[in-house]
Design goal:
The protein is built from 13 helices and seven strands. By secondary structure, it is α/β, with parallel strands linked by helices. It folds into two domains: 216 residues, 3-Layer(aba) Sandwich (Rossmann fold); 62 residues. It is globular, with a radius of gyration of 20 Å.
């Protein structure tokens, strides 16, 4: 059988353009976007937590090597974060939160790609993130940043021009959803049914665009399995990275997540890796506003 590479395009998909025109697009922001700003990846966070466990005496060098080998083989981010949390809790939980703070230090923010957030504000009026950093917060007033669970679970619908941190914010450590305990508390407890209804209503009534996620992530799989639903109508989108020779990965994702109503918009990571997401989004910006700007400049 002849090898057929994945066909990639930087053009804005028609369905996303239509959702922008109808004002039904929800931009759902993941860790990949924060990485463009200098934030840590999940892998970075795990590695630094393991180092912290070693430096404060929770584990010895041999145990540190064993944990890192296990992590690099299995890539179970949430499980490893939970394990580090448990060890640091026994010593001093502040050690755990010290690492979390450093992971998204605003003083080290790389502003080279910050215009991506301005583009988000031009594309939509509705914003959700599972990130706990404050990078995007700078484009909102304090009152328009929602991160407390009490407010989230009592929300009926999305308010325009608010940013919803559905897994908490670095502003308040108690709001964070990072460990297995946090996910169980947020998504499994029966008394939190209103929160799940809130998410389900978003997937039922809007067109969600996931940015900065990978389908291998625990985060997105948890959300989709609880909040989405099987549907013949594919009304949601994810900008997802692939190597050009991994058509099998793309086809698998299309079948699996198509059942939950999600269209795959692939981008190539062969050359500049995940920074290609930024280039794709800038191309979409030109598709949306380039002609308008040309007319205005005449």
């Amino acid at each position: 059988m002849a090898f057929t590479p994945i066909q990639f395009s930087r053009k804005l998909p028609l369905g996303i353009r239509n959702a922008i025109d109808r004002k039904t697009l929800v931009i759902f922001i993941g860790a990949g976007v924060s990485q463009l700003m200098g934030g840590w990846s999940w892998g970075d966070l795990v590695e630094e937590l393991v180092k912290k466990c070693r430096s404060v005496g929770c584990i010895n060098p041999r145990q540190e090597d064993h944990l890192m080998d296990k992590f690099h083989k299995e890539k179970k981010y949430v499980e490893m974060i939970t394990q580090c949390y448990d060890m640091l809790y026994e010593i001093n939980i502040d050690h755990y939160y010290d690492v979390i703070k450093i992971s998204c230090d605003m003083q080290k923010m790389d502003r080279k790609f910050i215009d991506i957030y301005t583009l988000f504000r031009k594309m939509s009026e509705y914003f959700i993130t599972t990130n706990y950093d404050e990078y995007f917060d700078t484009l909102f007033s304090i009152d328009d940043v929602v991160y407390k669970f009490e407010e989230l679970k009592n929300s009926v619908d999305l308010d325009k021009n608010k940013l919803y941190h559905i897994h908490g914010s670095i502003i308040d450590f108690t709001s964070l959803v990072l460990t297995e305990y946090d996910y169980q508390e947020r998504y499994e407890k029966l008394e939190n049914y209103k929160y799940k209804i809130f998410l389900k209503n978003i997937f039922a009534n809007y067109n969600v665009l996931f940015l900065g996620y990978s389908f291998s992530e625990y985060v997105i799989n948890t959300i989709l399995s609880r909040a989405s639903y099987e549907s013949n109508e594919k009304r949601h989108y994810i900008l997802n990275p692939y190597y050009s020779d991994r058509r099998d990965d793309l086809e698998y994702d299309e079948k699996r997540f198509g059942r939950m109503g999600v269209n795959i918009v692939p981008y190539i990571k062969d050359v500049i890796k995940y920074r290609e997401m930024y280039e794709v989004l800038k191309s979409w910006e030109n598709d949306l506003f380039g002609m308008q700007l040309e007319v205005e400049n005449i």
